[in-house]
Description:
Layout: E1 25-26, H1 32-42, E2 46-50, E3 56-60, H2 61-68, E4 90-91, H3 96-106, E5 110-114, E6 120-125, H4 126-129, H5 135-145, H6 150-157, H7 160-169, H8 174-196, E7 204-209, H9 210-214, E8 224-229, H10 233-249, E9 267-269, H11 270-282, H12 289-297, E10 300-304, H13 311-319, H14 322-335, E11 353-354, H15 355-373, H16 381-390, H17 396-422, E12 430-431, H18 438-461
Parallel strand pairs: 1-2, 4-5, 8-9
Antiparallel strand pairs: 2-3, 5-6, 7-8, 7-10, 11-12
Helix pairs in contact: 3-8, 5-6, 5-8, 7-8, 7-17, 8-10, 11-12, 11-13, 14-15, 14-18, 15-16, 15-17, 15-18, 16-17, 17-18
Amino acid sequence: MNEPLxxxxxxxxxxxxxxxxxxxxCGPDTTVAExxxxxxxxxxxxxxxxxxxxxxxxxxxxxxxxxxxxxxxGGDVPVAQVMTAPALTIAASTLGADALLVMLAHGVRxxxxxxxxxxxxxxxxxxxxxxxxxxxxxxxxxEIARAxxxxxxxxxxxxxxxxxxxxxxxxxxxxxxxxxxxVVAEAAVRRAVELVxxxxxxxxxxxGLGSIAxxxxxxxxxxDSAWSGDETVDTATTHATAVHALLDRCGLHADDKGASAxxxxxxxxxGRWHTAIEGWxxxxxxxxxxxxxxxxxxxxxxxxxxxxxxxxxTAQMLRSRPEVLRLLLRxxxxxxxxxxxxxxxxxxxxxPVDVKVHGLSPVVNIARxxxxxxxxxxxxxxxxxxxxVERGLLAADDGRVLGETFDVLTQIRxxxxxxxxxxxxxxxxxxxxxxxxPLQRSLLSNAVREIAGVQRxxxxxxxxx
Length: 465
């Protein structure tokens, strides 16, 4: 059987360590002929363009082909007329895995890397980060983004299960498979919104919620959604209903518990969202307040106006109410404290185990609290745990245990669902331990027990002072 690859190489190194040297740089008035010469002498496929106020543009070989040679322009054209500006940049401390997700989400192959003061240090390319097995995610994401009509989108999305199986068979790390699957699914959501026709008026935003927003999707993951904007709720829900109908054709099904922009509860004008957040903070025991606040902290804009971000706003409001944050922690350690850690999964006739409910969700909930308290929003569970340890909100041992168990359980979950896909079955989170090998059974048992131990520690002692 395939075993997941757990060593992630460049993915776990800061991009500053991956740079091949300084990037060739020019000014906006430089001609494209001179820019091409700089690329040649610098042995690079790009040149950075210094702009006022510290901004950067970028001109690539592809830009020269499409925007200069392809349209018959001469070499005396200034780069300002054909460059991409402002260029999307990343910080030097960004991990390679996160840089790869940024590239995949935005459909770019190169990212200028800047220092803490905004100075350009170089450019990281997809070839610095990608193994051959992961290129399929880029290709499929691009095909989805370019789908000309609904039938083309459905056809492209039909290959998502094959992409997932291909990544798994190639021994790509489970966390990376989940992240790539999440970005591809988000691209499908974005294109579906566009193809249905955005009947709302700007500003408006369509949000992904849950595992896709956290970049932790697996084949069984639903498409949770929300909407915010200035139009009427009826208009928004009608549009969302059509979007979800198209996504259903794509094999990306809406949340069966109702977390959907097609419902008025998840489709509100921006001001009403803010009012609702204030109400949930004022009375966290009413109207499923903690559940709603947690979903919003996990939200990510899939389409629309970035200024309407709800995750950052909700996280900031939560940090101003430490008593509500403590309730999130209490729910994380008490609501799931009865995880069947003593379930006899190594016995002769063990009971089935829901890997999500009995293992992954408790880690996600603890990480959500810790990440929010640390100032994060819309981040993955591993990132939240890492930052929480760095800022003293989780003990180093607790953060390590939770991170390792999250990785192990994600491996078990993904393997289980990929094997179901191979057999033509609908993927589920319920694992029969008798179908696992001895090592996998032991890992599952130990992971659940370790999570329960951290929960007890946090319940009795609380977070580090």
